[in-house]
Amino acid sequence: MVATSVANLAALPLPTLIGGILVVALAAAVFVRATANLRRGNSPPVEEGVPFVGGLLKFSKGPWHLMKSMHSKYGEVFTVPLAHKRMTFLLGPHASPHFFNATDERMSQTEVYSFNVPTFGEGVVFDVDQRVRSEQFRFVADALRSSKLKTYVPAFRQEAEDFFAAWGDTGVVNLAEVFGELIILTASRTLMGREVRESMFKRVADLFHDLDDGMRPLSVLFPYLPTAYHRKRDAARAALSDIFKSIIAARRASGVSEDDVLQALIDSRYKKVYDGRATTDQEIVGLLIALLFAGQHTSSITSTWTGLYMMAGDQKYYKAAEEEQRRVIAEHGTDITFDVLNELDTLHNCIQEALRLQPPLVLLMRYAKEPFEVTTSDGRSYVVPKGDIVATSPSFSHRLKHVFKDADSFQPERFRAPREEDKAAPFSYIGFGGGRHGCMGSQFAYLQIKTIWSVLLRNFTFELVDEFPEPDWDSMVIGPKPTRVRYTRRRL
Ligand code: HEM
Q1: CA distances from 13 to 17, 19, 20 (A)
Q2: What is the distance between the alpha carbons of residues 85 and 295, in angstroms, rounded to a whole number?
Q3: Do 425 and 460 have their domain in common?
Q4: Which amino acid residue places its CA nearest to atom 28 of ligand 1?
Q5: Residues 22 and 169 in one domain
Q6: Which residues have CB under 8 Å from 388's CB, separation 6+?
Q7: 350 is in an annotated binding site
Q8: For a disulfide at 107, which of 58, 72, 102, 444, Cβ 3.0-4.6 Å?
Q9: Number of domains in the chain
């Protein structure tokens, strides 16, 4: 039967044959799409004109333009085909609660963030099931709770003062580079521990650099591709693991307990899984690396933007933050403590506003494990099908003009009464994410950035040498393009 049909086809003139094939292919495509839509119910609008690869190309230029054009065309919920996948966006405080409030059984992180496994290591975070992960995050939450954070402030201060003591009376620096170096120093003291800071900082910082350099846009799709960067990453991961395992062994042998996150992870025990055993060395190293990754670029980028916005224009906000420092010095003396940092509302709001305008994590993602319904602010209901990557975006949500007045301008006072624009609706402000997986290090980050900027405000004035920068969309975590500033030493 098949043979006969093929013979008949072969007898047809070529143009007729090609035409016939095209008609059949077109009909098949229409049928597949129509039945797919039926199968999916009323799924969100898809950018039909964009072929698979087209979405990817637009995306590779930075997701901002793609989100802007799709949002103006379709509203808060839409789907973009990305290579062989579909990414459905839920943008703004009306649609994004579906993202932030969903249980892990409905919207999972594992599928979309598992590219981190070669970096963080096996047996932790995205390499384990949800029950184990939530226990491991409990260890992290304990290590970062307020009573512990208080003890980290003197270390932040010491590192910042020593670092800036090496600056001259005046000079020109790239702030992003400065904070990149300083944040790994503070992290080494408070997260990795005294041993690393005192005797092997340079080696660990170099290894961390190689590990970080091995995480590139290509690694998201192909984390195990045998590239030179990935090989260096794997070697750095193994070397870091050896270093930390020997530190852990020495601490266990000596019985000495330190005040740092490493110690908190060593002392952690599972409650609901693994028969209540303690963390293994491999898990401790993996969690520590995951924390370094979560906090390093995000904090250094936010420190940089905070400074750049404060010193831009007529320096209105730099002067206001200086005034605030004068006030706390008059009240409490020159010490920088946990309680003093908690009084710095102006500086706090400047950091918050820098993070609103320039959140380093532009897209947050999950994987839809089951279909779910979402209703837009104008009453349209869609069913997002199982298997979609679901994304929301701090950068996009933070610029919505109906949520934030004059959304493109730097106005730290928007967070204070009577405006309090971030509180008008849940999930309006998502620089630290929110809901079930909100950032566990937000308080740590605020304390660290406030300490560093307090030291700077008390000792230097700044001016921009270059134009105010654009974001650099080529990186994984988005920061400003290199920008030079001039510092001048003075005492407040
Ligand atoms: C300005 C600095 C920071 C920013 C902007 C930031 C931002 C974020 C965001 C947006 C998320 C949510 C990710 C998602 O929903 O997929 C997140 C999660 C997380 N962050 Fe941060 N972060 C910062 C600093 C830190 C620091 C310093 C630490 C630790 C020392 C940290 C630890 C974590 C952890 C453990 C999670 C995962 C929480 C979970 O999945 O349940 N972050 N962060």
Answers
A1: 6, 10, 11
A2: 29
A3: yes
A4: 441
A5: no
A6: 79, 86, 87, 88, 367, 368
A7: no
A8: 102
A9: 2
Ligand 1 pocket test, pick from 153, 364, 439 with the greatest ligand atom count within 8 Å of Cβ, gives 439
Host domain of residue 6: 1-34
How many Cα neighbours within 13 Å face the side chain of 289? Answer: 35
- Indicate if 18 and 40 belong to the same structural domain: no
> Based on the domain organization, do 395 and 459 belong to the same domain?
yes
CATH of the domain at 334: 1.10.630.10
Are 222 and 366 in the same domain? yes
Q: Are residues 8 and 146 in the same domain?
A: no
Please determine, for the modelled complex, whether the ipTM score is greater than 0.95.
Answer: yes
pLDDT by residue for the chain (492 residues), tens digit each?
333 333 333 333 434 444 444 444 444 444 444 445 444 559 999 976 554 455 555 566 678 888 999 999 999 999 998 877 899 999 999 999 999 999 999 999 999 999 999 999 999 999 999 999 999 999 999 999 988 999 999 999 999 999 999 999 999 999 999 999 999 999 989 999 999 999 899 999 999 999 999 998 889 889 999 999 999 999 999 999 999 999 999 999 999 999 999 999 999 999 999 999 999 999 999 999 999 999 999 999 999 999 999 999 999 999 999 999 999 999 999 999 999 999 999 999 999 999 999 999 999 999 999 999 999 999 999 999 999 999 999 999 999 999 999 999 999 999 999 999 999 999 999 999 999 999 999 999 999 999 999 999 999 999 999 999 999 988 889 999 999 999 999 999
Q: Is the CB of 434 under 6 A from ligand 1?
A: no
Q: Are residues 5 and 56 in the same domain?
A: no
